[in-house]
Design brief:
169 residues, alpha+beta, NADH Oxidase, 6 helices, 15% strand
Length: 169
């Protein structure tokens, strides 16, 4: 599969089959997140793999968008490892780094036949507390994933024109 085909075909899956993701595929998805580029290679990312029903239920209390997926990746970063931009006080790279990690994992999952949905509707502190994570962890994305149910087709198929998005200056 070419990257452009992958980019065009992938969509957010919001309904999953009750089927486990094989360990080797799950490991490849995690590995894609581990090798994602980060600012100054500080690698502040944290990836939590949530498979137990009990823990998925805890996440369901933090967001209505878990879609009963068999696996939910919780992606964030360790604030103590995040690169600090001295030219822009107050800016740290952790959120951007975690977004790159999430994207790598999402695309690897699709290549391996696993659907996912990037969820941002939650309170980071609530998720951190529900999962018992350390205070220095900031959760940036939840990513339910699994095999797409046949009814889980794409919701969006309209894209803005290039001229409306890209400006050459």
């Amino acid at each position: 599969m070419t990257f452009m085909k992958l980019a065009k075909d992938r969509y957010s899956v919001r309904k999953y089959k009750e089927k486990d993701i094989p360990a080797d595929i799950l490991e490849r998805i995690i590995e894609a997140g581990m090798y994602a580029p980060t600012a100054c290679n500080n690698q502040p990312q944290k990836i939590y793999v949530v498979k137990s029903k009990e823990t998925r239920e805890k996440l369901k209390e933090c967001t209505p968008y878990t879609f009963d997926a068999p696996v939910i990746m919780v992606i964030g970063y360790d604030k103590t490892r995040s690169w600090q931009n001295k030219r822009m006080p107050g800016y740290e790279s952790g959120e951007t780094d975690a977004a790159i990690v999430t994207t790598h994992m999402m695309l690897q999952a699709w290549e391996d036949g696993i659907g996912s949905c990037w969820v941002g509707v939650f309170n980071s502190d609530e998720v951190r507390d529900a999962l018992g994570l350390a205070e220095n962890i900031r959760v940036t994305a939840l990513m339910p994933m699994g095999y797409a149910d046949m009814e889980a087709g794409p919701r969006h198929s309209r894209y803005r024109d290039r001229e409306d998005i890209v400006e050459e200056i």
